[in-house]
# Entry
Amino acid sequence: MSAGLTFEGLRKTFTGEAGTVTAVDGVSGVIAPGKITGLVGPDAAGKTTLIRMLAGLLVPNAGTITKPPGHVSYMPQKFGLYEDLTVEQNLVLYADLHGLDQKARKETFAKLHGFTGLAPFTDRLAGKLSGGMKQKLGLACTLVVTPEVLLLDEPSVGVDPVSRRELWAMVQQLQNTGIAVLWSTAYLDEAERCDHVMLLHEGTMLFDGAPKDFTARSEGQTWRMALPAKAAEKRELQRAAAALPGVIDSQIQGRALRLVVEKDAPAPTLPGLTAEQIPPRLEDAYLAMLHPPHKPPPIVEHTEEVGSGELIRVHDLTRKFGAFTAVDHLSFEVQRGEIFGLLGPNGAGKSTTFKMLCGLIPASSGEAHVAGFDLRVARADARGRLGYMAQKFAYVGYLSVEQNMRFAAGVYGLSKKEANERVEEAIDAFGLAPYRSSACGLLPLGIKQRMALACAILHRPAILFLDEPTSGVDPVTRHEFWARINAMADAGMTVLVTSHFIDEAEYCDRLAIIYRGKMIGLGSPEEIKAQHDKGGAGLEAAFISLVENYDREHPQ
Amino acid sequence: MTGPTVNMQRLRGFLRKEWLQIIRDPSSIVVAVILPMVMLVLFGFGVSLDAKNQPAAIVIETAAPEAQDFLASLRATPYVTPTIAPDRQTAIAWMRTGKVRAIVVLPEDFGAQLHRANAAPIQVLVNGTDSNTARLLAGYIQGIWATWLQGKAQAERTQVQTIAVQSRIWFNEAVDSHRSIIPGLIAVIMTLIGALLTALVIAREWERGTMEALLTTPLTKTELLLGKLLPYFALGMGGMVVSTVFALTVFGLPFAGSVWVLLLASSLFMLVVLGFGLMASTITRNQFSASILALTATMLPGMLLSGFIFDIRSMNPVVQVITHIVPARYFVEILKTLFLAGDIWPVILPNMGALALMATILLTITARKTTRSLE
Amino acid sequence: MLPASWTESLRRIAALIRRELLTIWRDKRGRTILILPPIMQLFVFSYAATFDLSNAPLAILNEDAGLASRELVARFSASDAFKPMARLTNGVEIKAIIENGDALAVLHIGPTFSRDLASGKTPTIQFIVDGRQSNTALIAMSYVNEIVGDFSREQAARYGRSMAGPQLVTRAWFNSNLETRWFIIPGLVATLTMVVATLTTSMSVARERELGTFEQLLVTPLRPWELFVGKIVGPAIIAFTEGALLAVLGILIFHVPLRGDVALMALGLAVFMLSVTSVGLMISTLTNTQQQAQIASFCVVMPCIILSGLTTPIENMPGWVQALTYLNPLRYVLVINRGVFLQDIPASVAFANLWPMALIGVVTAAMAMRLFRSRMA
# Structure
């Protein structure tokens, strides 16, 4: 068996307009054969730089890399599939580039097709595949030659739970053949399943060892508090818990709060609630180690009077693209102050629903009312009453934070005076003052996200639309983001979230599970768990069983 | 990264992929084949430097019979379309509003002046805004006047002695500006097409993230560049064939040189312009910048600095030096010579040499700037 | 006081225009690419675009030993147009020197030139010129006629004969020295701004789509027409400013006279920008990628330049091509620009060229708007 890949004292600096930045600073480690090594860390921790150095695409300023004799394969974060070529043509290209002869190719392709389940789609254009399938094809292209070391840069970003599970299973199969795998991720539940984990923060290695050793560090720091059922109340209690001395993180999980406290801090107490100590998870240890930089200040007074009752009413909403029905007679209501989630795998129709509700595309039939406006006649008016935050950071990178915010204010029709006031207010409330004049394209993800959120609510919308807001974001940033959203919902903001990411679904008051254009489930996360996950393994298991049941009952 | 090794399987695979992409988005084929035809027709007919049918106002203030006679000879030429103006004021107004480009005044004493030596019986005013047309028009009227005088002298059997200039224009006896413009036009069009075809192809790989994936494969620099160059070379040469056939059939140009010299020169030229596009694409790694760079560096310089319309020999010396970096300059010379004069080696060899040098430089820079890493 | 909906509309458009301008301004590379090349081009092209002949290489084959022929040759040496570069001794050398492009022309004076001149016969000289560049050939011939004409008049005076007869007096208005630069710069001002405006508008939507910022714009309350206006006004302002800058450079550095009303020119340029940016946005709407946008704008801009009269007069074109030029906004703005710079054209002429351009602008804007609506909504 080979020795895997060893690196020692790696250092990498970049010189740009803003001066010299050290991305990776003296990092050492071993990627052992037959194991999956998880590489975790927040955005800008240096994960991608490290992987690129290991793949030989960047030359380190210092340090050594000892590679095994065999092949080192690397799948970049945004794997460059040729979207205008078919699945087969993409595979053939990489087979040619890796010099596979006809005989070997036949075997390899057969193996990869079986492995990835892409066989029925060989003639489909890669651009027409779902996010999960694209990742699988990317992995297949990376694996046309069997590597000794496989480097995967955030392979599960933008991938729905079903595909994520399949992807993980594929990599485990590889691991069993003795390949050394490096899997970088921002999701700690994935890291928890790895054999070995490396935690990178600001270019240095904070931890290198088995996940359970890392988790053990925060033994005794995790508490659970059972909550009463009412939605509004639980968010209030969560905020109260977060404000307790010694509490690092508080998170709503179903009908309970999960709290992480500082080492040797006393048990958290809230009137009328009891805290019990629970075993920590990797995420708790991570949060305990990387303290959030500050507690998010509460946001007040962000909505004007918006009436009450149902702020979104959808009835028999249908959208067809030619013969294909993307959204099939959808009906639901969202109440004021509710956080409502549209959950579903890629291509299920949730984006189409979302786009119709934002007024981006018209419905083929059915009705939708948003903030009191009928979308059939007053799309632009409805748009004026909602805030929107895209999955991909969608602001002009060259503009400064303040310029982007002023644009948002202007484009929502605020007067100069109002704009001035609110921009100042938001810069203050979102802690953006230090970045006011920086080009926002160069800022770290967390700050970008804060800015995007600030822009989305400058005009005090009645409804906030979030499109996979924390996909690929590390827990520290994610928790901070959701704390803000919770505070807003408490103040009366209605929030609509689309997601295929279970962690985000946990924050919702109610969920609609969308699959193949239809709504196959509706209810609070606890209800859905109770109905569809008998084993008690959580929302993800419930979601997968719902989808699989539907497939069984309605074969395509 | 290994040296200039080429593995045929890898290269074939890469070429196939490039070709599939070209077919999927046929805009490249449109650029290479349709565009030259459209441009040749439009430009071939649109660009003409001969001043013909120029509107001129004639003011006749005299009753002398010769005036009508002169008017008749003005009418007889294709260069001037005369219109009688009632008086000078009207003629001047016409000129101001752009209705006419010249005014010819035959004053009251025209008849008397006519018989005096070194007198000036006729005045001509031209609109100098378009200086070239003005000069040509003035020349034409002068010529008509001289011919008319000579004819009159012969008729009256007066002894007039002049020095006769026997002008002969080689390679283009009829001074048909199409003959000199079309070969130049082909060069300009091919410059644009070559740069357009390749300006985006490498930048696109960077922007779409496919380059990082390619870098993880054993694909060598040479294979990458060949893979990008060859398909567009084929397309570009296709465009060249289309243009040549068009020039010979639609515009009836002669072809005095030999085909293989044309083929060789065109190949060299294609390498230069494709090389430029690839370089722009490689350096900027950004489609927006690459395309603006490629367009500004080829479109107007190709038209104005290549000798296609404006003679390089008449330019400011500094600008003349600058024209040496415009590849179209060399190809314009070669094409004009091949079409109109023949395989004239003293012209063709130095220009081909220049093209070969430029191709080498551009492709070397591109190769240097193409890295097998992300830095 | 405007109704509230109007005020909000204007605020939204203003915000969008500000964003468009800032986007281009804050991108260092974009800024450089938009500003530097047009200025450089103005300089280079102003020096390059000349139909004047200067120092054209001339070979001389003088077979005559007389004084008159030497005087004639001296005339050629003294002229700015020609520069004698070789003395030939034999007629067979002519072929090579022209073919190789070493000389533009050969002046061939026969052995009996002086004798014929003295005896009152009509002496003949031969002028052989390379026709590969037909325009140069024509101009060279007109210079030769001028030089020989002057010479023969003087000879006539010397021998006391009546020679060439009455003269024709030619004067050129508006550009008395027939400077090509005066002709080309007012044209370049419009042409270069057209290139900038078309490229920036045509690529803007495709670029935003590729960057993902377009969707964010679409979810704002911006109405399609507001988005449309913002998207064309931004680039129009940039291109207009650039045009003004180029015009000022033309006046200060190249001393092109400015004889007419600047307001007319500004109005002309503004109307021109409307039609150009509308076309740009139409391209933008119809294309999906930046590559397609770039190719399409090129296919529009290039014929517009050729069929505008920028370098060659429209009157020379065949009828059907001339008819096409009426669709070309550049055609009209060139007349206005040149008219204002050199001629002080009356307002009536300017308006005669303004309204067709405005019509083209309105029609293209309406078409672009329709397309934009159907694609965006």
Notes: The interface with chain B takes residues 52, 55-59, 73-76, 78-85, 89, 92-99, 138, 141-142 of chain A (CB under 8 Å). The CA atoms of residues 5 and 250 of chain A lie 38 Å apart.
